[in-house]
Amino acid sequence: MRSSWKTLTFLVIVTLAGSWITPAQAQAPQGAPLPVPPAPDPVPYPQAAPLPGGAPLPAAYPPEELERIVSPVALYPDPLLAQFFTAATFYDQIPDAARWADQHHYLNGPALTAAMAADQVPWDPSVQALVPFPSILDMMAAAMPWTQEVGSAFLVQPNDVMDAVQRRRQVAVQYGYLRSGPQIIVRTGPYIEIVPVNPDYVVVPYYDPLVVFAPPRRGIYVGGAIRFGFGVTLGAVWAPWGWHSNRFLWGEHRVIINNAPWGRRWENRTTYVHPYTVPRYAGPRAAEGHRVEERSRNERENSRDGRKYKEEHRR
After folding, report:
1. How would DSSP label each residue in 220-282?
2. 227 pairs with which residues across the strands?
3. d(Cα 300, Cα 42) in Å, to the nearest integer?
4. Mind listing the pLDDT tens digit for each residue in 93-112?
């Protein structure tokens, strides 16, 4: 199971997004753990094409495709999931943000927000809000076709995306995988909500979508299928980016970011400006004024797998 979790925390997104399977995986015996290719260091993030200004409305995804798209993140706590979806609509900004977050991962709290301001990072605040989670930006940047699917789907059919999340959560609850614990509270009813026990500490779940959305198999410990080994403390300094106020109004199909309904859609994607209080910078970033330290292979793999690790670059 550990090999399965490790693989599908990061790499199954690629499989679910486009069924990209390596020859080694295709030849692996049934039930055998899949080999985990080593993570490159540094990660060569692919670039995304800018969002087209006059492109026609993309075709809508059918329900089963939306379930595939949201499966890797459907069990994220609501505040994190809301931030993830809104950031994905700016998918062309993700690779640059992921690179910057990786290079400044040793900073946190006020030091991190000060560095973002000093460098005049040009991304939308919804993308900036994920900088404290370099492993999530890393995941998104390394699987850009999937990230673009998420962003496009949320721009075109946000209600259907939210419905797909609820269907995935219903399945995970039905099979006993999704339940309240020390890190999260799961509220069931017409809609399933997942919220952190401590609003200041947002945890990232690690799970195998091929496990938690299927009937339990023999030998599977249901209670341990979702792990919460890594989280981020988000104090008041992150409130201007919406943290502590991000949430879903599931019954109304509304996403609240920074205490305001998120209204970016395909039709207004080039003009919509969400009400944030953080400064917005246009053009290239200011000259780098901070030490650049990309995460080591060990740091990157541990954070990707939800394991705590010791910062190796502190001086």
Report:
1. --GGGSEEEEEEEE--GGGGGGTTTT-EEEGGGTEEEETTEE----STTTTT------S----
2. 206
3. 10
4. 999 999 999 999 899 999 99
Q: What is the pLDDT of residues 43-93, one digit of tens each?
A: 466 666 666 666 778 889 999 999 999 999 999 999 999 999 999 999 999
One-letter-per-residue 3-state SS of 145-160: HHHHHHHHHHHHCHHH
Can you read off the two tokens belonging to residue 188? 């069931």
For the question of whether the overall pTM of this predicted structure is more than 0.85, the answer is: no
Question: Amino acid identity of 88?
Answer: A
Contacts of 159 (CB under 8 A, 6+ apart): 253
DSSP 181: -
Spatial contact of 192 and 91, defined as CB atoms under 8 Å apart = no
- Cα(215)–Cα(75) distance, integer angstroms: 17
How many C-beta neighbours within 10 Å does residue 19 have? Answer: 8
